[in-house]
From TrEMBL:
Protein's recorded name: Phosphopantetheine-binding protein
InterPro entries: ACP-like_sf (IPR036736), PP-bd_ACP (IPR009081)
Domain Carrier intervals: 5-83
Coiled-coil positions: none
Pfam families attached to this UniProt entry: PP-binding
Length: 91
């Protein structure tokens, strides 16, 4: 288990910082399994979000982790997998 866990709240915060939110989307709602495309985030917004995650958490995400057809759950899982790898390398 990683010592740092990336959560939906972390993702919401970074999404808002990086790209804001569409006024028709409630990020506080149940968005875990809604694609980023439906949430109103296109690839440029996701690249900015991914860049912020990488800088803040010291990880590197694959381009596939940042496509607009994935869900927040997918991205959170990808971030936590990278955090686990970082922890394993540090041990």
């Amino acid at each position: 288990m990683p010592s740092i866990q990336f959560t939906l709240d972390d993702l919401r915060r970074i999404l808002l910082e990086a790209a804001g939110a569409d006024e028709n989307v409630d990020l506080a709602g149940d968005i875990l399994d809604t694609t980023f495309e439906v949430l109103g985030y296109e690839s440029i917004a996701l690249l900015e979000t991914g860049g912020r995650i990488e800088r803040e958490y010291g990880i590197v995400l694959d381009d596939d982790d940042l496509s607009d057809d994935i869900t927040p759950r997918d991205l959170i899982d990808a971030v936590n997998a990278q955090l686990s790898l970082s922890d394993a390398r540090a041990a």
